[in-house]
Amino acid sequence: MLEQGRLVYFREKLLAKKRELEQQVKSMEEGGLHQSMRDSTGELSFCDNHPADMGNELFERGKDVALRDQARLQLRQVEEALQRVEDGTYGRCQRCGQAIDEERLEAVPETPYCLTCRREVEKEGRPRVRPVEEEVIRPPFGKLTGDESAFFDGEDTWQTVARFGTSGDLADWDPDGEL
Ligand SMILES: [Zn+2]
């Protein structure tokens, strides 16, 4: 468990980060996002714009949205970490209950997980790298609607193809060892 002094230290660190992120989210909402495309590209040149420029503008806006969402997500994590400071559970991994390295807390004070669990959680969060066996064994949560099952069929087909790799790998593929 963290000493009281360290706890106060991390609490301050989290509060500073919270203020910073709140500011960031706020300025992104006031600035980039609420500004219409007309404003940011310039009204007069709007019609003269090459379609590629518009595409780029859309891309930039998409990036703004992604950055804002990321900042919001981080802000929520900081708030949750502050809650854990209040609860007296801060510094413990929310998954395995082990103490999180202080070095790690220093670098990412809002982290809910130890490094090992972080990696596990990241793995779980990426269905494409899940072992194929697991997909077969684990039943889907809830009933799939027609549309969803069609989507998953598509995924399975893609994964089957992807497992064989690119056409370059396919040349070396020798399932029966007869080559
Ligand atoms: Zn853990």
Topology of helices and strands:
Layout: H1 4-33, H2 37-41, H3 51-87, H4 102-107, H5 115-124, H6 132-137, H7 146-163, H8 167-170
Helix pairs in contact: 1-3
The protein binds zinc ion.
The site of zinc ion has 8 residues, from helix 5.
Task: Provide an overview of this structure.
This protein is an all-alpha fold and 179 residues long. It has a domain at 4-42 and 49-132: DksA, coiled-coil domain (Four Helix Bundle (Hemerythrin (Met), subunit A), Up-down Bundle). 65% of the residues lie in helices and 0% in strands. The chain is built from 8 helices and no strands. The protein has helices at 4-33, 37-41, 51-87, 102-107, 115-124, 132-137, 146-163, 167-170. Zinc ion (ZN) is lined by residues 93, 95-96, 98, 113-114, 116-117. Residues 93, 95-96, 98, 113-114, 116-117 line the site of zinc ion (ZN).
